[in-house]
């Protein structure tokens, strides 16, 4: 292979990306070396099995991916701002819009929410860690290396260009030769291993490691939404795994599963993809519903209205999510009967979603609302998401969908659901639980500037796209006709407004780190209702000195009324905790090497990497590391220091 075939050449923007990667990498290496932080990085982060640190690494990675996906979006909006623009050529535009969709769904939204689940769910149920801490570390590193493998494609080999759905036969070897599509297949496959493992791990944690006497219907709503999301992950992700494996075998080993020749079935990929893809939408929206529910209850200072109805509506949505996938291809000739069945199931899913809207409004009714930044994101979500939901019902009508389907109306709907639902929730959840992660709040004044720029930019960007779509502008085009100029230009201005909002948000993280007052109590908002706010600040690595007992709904409120805490010296005993280990990052690093080799069809190197991974699994199977115990004296010292108590 020639060097110019290995590296992407000929694009000034990509050369700029290469320079940026080199400069950022050099700066990180210099800082770590200059401040002698290599040992600290390895000991405290790269080898950690602490669910809180793993969650923080998920969120930091997701924020980086939000920047990458956002830059892709801005490049597309610049290209579509004026008729006849030549900012991106057709090939480069296809690559950018493919990576934008894939990065935002797979490598931003999911890891952001999984990061919040990692940090908060064990704290909410009174657990000391995940059921399988080693597997949790494996999950993160498989996601991380999968994300890196996918993202490196724009400077090495070339990015995939068949859209984030990668429909066959366009994504097949005949029509998409080269390594680009292989990066998509192997990157998603590698990351998907971690997601599936997380689903199993978190489900077992919630079922088996809740505090004594915490019944299922005493669990906080965020834990419930995470638990039900795990069911969707466990049933949906194997479908994607099989589909990706079959297409990989098609492309690299010449089989005929999805090809136009040899009795392959291109439409089968579309079915398999959306049998995963529509439940995937609810994987990233149900935890968001849980986040908003927690925040609204806290800052409305009321118990969540209709708790049981909320839980059962989430269960119903999860079940229906597997019965609606055909609405993604109403226009592909399935027939009137099939379209009618899936049109009805699509509209049915609006019912439990509507129940939730009324639950939130009922919670807000006659309450004393505190307009914190987290609450602003939650309040903005409700009307914004309703717009996405109503237009979803319009798209769910099969006859009408023939008009809407391939237009910018669908693009607007999709973003109203996923940005107003998921991205707003990511910002809201991060602001809300930030003191629990880092021991200080984000600055509220700067946070409100970020919120308003992002919110206004969001509506200015996507609301005009409904009308552009109704005016006939199809999606997936890299040029616009003169009659679509005005609304497209307005849309581009809105996109840059969102970019400014995100930049202010990042600045807020820096500013708050420098100047925010440090938390001295675990209940940062003074209105905490659930167990995560009962822990000390900062949260000890073992979470709870003594496991909470007799836990009901709104557990912390009950403890406050009784004058109790989670620190009871009379019940202290040594706490068993797992040891840190470097095996997860090494194992997933070797598997990432094998995946990279397979991208370029270097089968021998890929086989060597696979053998190395199996050897690491063997080493792990003979690992008899039983962890360590935290002594009672150490627990006393830690808790007293965290709670500002004097040593006796």
UniProtKB/TrEMBL annotation:
Alphabetized UniProt keyword annotations: Cell membrane, Copper, Electron transport, Heme, Hydrogen ion transport, Ion transport, Iron, Membrane, Metal-binding, Oxidoreductase, Respiratory chain, Translocase, Transmembrane, Transmembrane helix, Transport
GO BP of this protein: electron transport coupled proton transport; oxidative phosphorylation; respiratory electron transport chain
Positions of the Cytochrome oxidase subunit I profile domain: 34-551
Bilayer-spanning residue ranges: 12-35, 56-76, 96-121, 133-156, 183-207, 227-253, 273-292, 304-326, 332-355, 376-400, 412-434, 446-467, 487-510, 586-619
Topology relative to the membrane: Multi-pass membrane protein
GO molecular function: copper ion binding; cytochrome-c oxidase activity; heme binding; oxidoreductase activity, acting on diphenols and related substances as donors, oxygen as acceptor
One Gene Ontology cellular component annotation held by this UniProt entry: plasma membrane
UniProt pathway: Energy metabolism; oxidative phosphorylation
Catalysed conversion reaction: 4 Fe(II)-[cytochrome c] + O2 + 8 H(+)(in) = 4 Fe(III)-[cytochrome c] + 2 H2O + 4 H(+)(out); 2 a quinol + O2 = 2 a quinone + 2 H2O
Cofactor binding: number and manner: Binds a copper B center. Heme A3.
InterPro entries referenced in this protein's UniProt entry, alphabetically: Cyt_c_oxase-like_su1_dom, Cyt_c_oxase-like_su1_sf, Cyt_C_Oxase_1, QoxB
Cofactor(s) the protein requires to work: Cu cation; ferriheme a
Cellular localization per UniProt: Cell membrane
Family of the protein in this entry: Belongs to the heme-copper respiratory oxidase family.
Function: Catalyzes quinol oxidation with the concomitant reduction of oxygen to water.
Name used for this protein in its record: Quinol oxidase subunit 1
Organism name: Virgibacillus necropolis
Gene name linked to the record: qoxB
């Amino acid at each position: 292979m020639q060097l110019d075939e290995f590296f992407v050449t000929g694009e000034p923007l990509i050369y700029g990306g290469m320079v940026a990667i080199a400069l950022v990498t050099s700066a990180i290496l210099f800082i770590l070396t200059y401040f002698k932080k290599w040992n600290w990085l390895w000991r405290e982060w790269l080898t950690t099995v602490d669910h809180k640190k793993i969650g923080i690494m998920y969120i930091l990675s997701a924020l980086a991916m939000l920047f990458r996906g956002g830059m892709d979006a801005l490049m597309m909006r610049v290209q579509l701002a004026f008729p006849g623009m030549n900012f991106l050529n057709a090939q480069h535009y296809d690559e950018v819009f493919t990576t934008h969709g894939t990065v935002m769904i797979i490598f931003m939204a999911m890891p952001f929410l999984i990061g919040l689940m990692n940090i908060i769910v064990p704290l909410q149920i009174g657990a000391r860690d995940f059921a399988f801490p080693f597997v949790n570390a494996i999950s993160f590193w498989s996601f991380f290396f999968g994300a890196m493998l996918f993202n490196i494609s724009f400077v090495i080999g070339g990015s995939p260009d068949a859209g984030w759905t990668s429909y066959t036969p366009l994504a097949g070897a005949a029509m998409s030769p080269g390594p680009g599509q292989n990066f998509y297949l192997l990157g998603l496959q590698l990351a998907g291993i971690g997601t599936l493992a997380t689903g199993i791990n978190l489900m077992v944690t919630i079922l088996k490691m809740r505090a004594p006497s915490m019944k299922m219907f005493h669990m906080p709503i965020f834990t419930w939404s995470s638990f039900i999301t795990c069911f969707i992950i466990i049933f949906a992700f194997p479908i994607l795994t099989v589909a990706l494996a079959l297409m990989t075998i098609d492309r690299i080993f010449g089989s005929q599963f999805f090809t136009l020749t040899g009795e392959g079935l291109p439409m089968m990929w579309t079915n398999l993809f959306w049998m995963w893809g529509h439940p995937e939408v609810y994987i990233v929206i149900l935890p968001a519903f849980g986040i908003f529910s927690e925040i609204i209850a806290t800052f409305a200072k009321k118990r969540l209205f209709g708790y049981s109805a909320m839980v059962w509506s989430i269960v119903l949505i999860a079940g229906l999510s597997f019965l609606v996938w055909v609405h993604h291809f109403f226009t592909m000739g399935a027939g009137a009967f099939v379209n009618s069945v899936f049109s009805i199931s699509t509209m049915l899913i609006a019912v439990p979603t509507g129940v939730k809207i009324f639950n939130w409004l009922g919670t807000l009714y006659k309450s004393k609302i505190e307009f914190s930044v987290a609450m602003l994101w939650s309040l903005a979500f409700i009307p914004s998401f309703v717009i996405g939901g109503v237009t979803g019902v319009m798209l769910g009508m099969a006859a009408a969908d023939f008009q809407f389907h391939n237009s910018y109306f669908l693009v607007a709907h999709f973003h109203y659901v996923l940005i107003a639902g998921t991205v707003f929730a990511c910002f809201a959840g991060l602001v809300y639980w930030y003191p629990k992660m880092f021991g200080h709040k984000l600055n509220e004044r700067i946070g409100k500037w970020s919120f308003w720029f992002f919110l206004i930019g969001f509506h200015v960007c996507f609301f005009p796209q409904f009308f552009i779509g109704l005016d006939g502008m199809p999606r997936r085009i890299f040029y616009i006709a003169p009659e679509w100029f005005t609304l497209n230009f307005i849309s581009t201005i809105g996109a840059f407004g969102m970019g400014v909002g995100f930049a202010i948000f990042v600045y807020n993280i820096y500013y708050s780190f420098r100047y925010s007052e440090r938390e001295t109590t675990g209940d940062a908002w003074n209105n905490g209702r659930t167990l995560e706010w009962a822990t000390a600040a900062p949260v000890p690595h073992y979470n709870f000195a003594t496991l909470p007992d007799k836990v009901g709904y709104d557990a912390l409120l009950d403890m406050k009324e009784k004058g109790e805490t989670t620190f009871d010296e009379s019940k202290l005993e040594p706490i068993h905790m797992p040891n840190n280990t470097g095996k997860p990052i090494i194992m997933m690093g070797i598997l990432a090497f094998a995946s990279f080799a397979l991208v370029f069809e270097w089968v021998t190197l890929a086989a060597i990497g696979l053998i190395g991974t199996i050897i690491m699994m063997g080493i792990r199977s003979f690992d008899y590391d039983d962890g360590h115990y935290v002594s009672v004296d150490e627990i006393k010292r830690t808790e007293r220091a965290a709670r500002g108590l004097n040593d006796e």
